[in-house]
Amino acid sequence: MNSGELFTELDGLGSTLDNAIGDTFWVTDRMVEAVNAAANAVRLPDPETGLVPCGCGGKAEFLDVKWCIGDDGGVIAYCLNCLVKTAKHMTKEQATHDWNSAMGYKEEV
């Protein structure tokens, strides 16, 4: 479902719910899909890792990496589902900021 279809379905769901107060109504699979997609759009950081979910919906984790001999090592954030990853960073805080920014999360100031 693309964003245009999502808006149309959510708009239709809102109208259906507005008109259905006190009535019985039918919910279509597309309406359920739209509501679920909207709910998944609200991505909050995991309380343990501080990482928001991946765009695919997968859970993000940290991985300590050392690419080659002589490499001082570092850390990446990556998705357990689709394996998308950040660049290597020296700290988890830097990897967290990189990951969350890439996923569209804006930190509260």
Question: Mind explaining what this structure looks like?
Answer:
The chain has 109 residues and is α+β, with helices and mostly antiparallel strands. It has two domains: 3-41, no CATH class; 44-109, no CATH class. Helices cover 38% and strands 11% of the residues. It is built from three helices and two strands; from the N terminus they run ααββα. It has helices spanning 3-19, 29-41, 92-102, and strands at 60-65, 74-79. A two-stranded antiparallel sheet has the order 1-2. α1 crosses α2. The two termini are 32 Å apart.
Write the layout of secondary structure elements.
Layout: H1 3-19, H2 29-41, E1 60-65, E2 74-79, H3 92-102
Antiparallel strand pairs: 1-2
Helix pairs in contact: 1-2
Distance between the termini: 32 Å
Helicity level: 25-40%
Mean residue pLDDT: 80
Our estimate of the beta-strand percent is: 5-15%
Number of helices: 3
Describe the biggest sheet?
2 strands, antiparallel
Order of adjacent strands in the largest pleated sheet: 1-2
Q: How many domains would you count in the coordinates?
A: 2
Report Rg: 19 Å
- What sort of overall outline do the alpha carbons produce when their principal axes are compared? elongated
Low-confidence stretches: none
Q: Helix- and strand-based class?
A: alpha+beta
Number of DSSP strand runs: 2
In N-to-C order, the SSE pattern is HHEEH
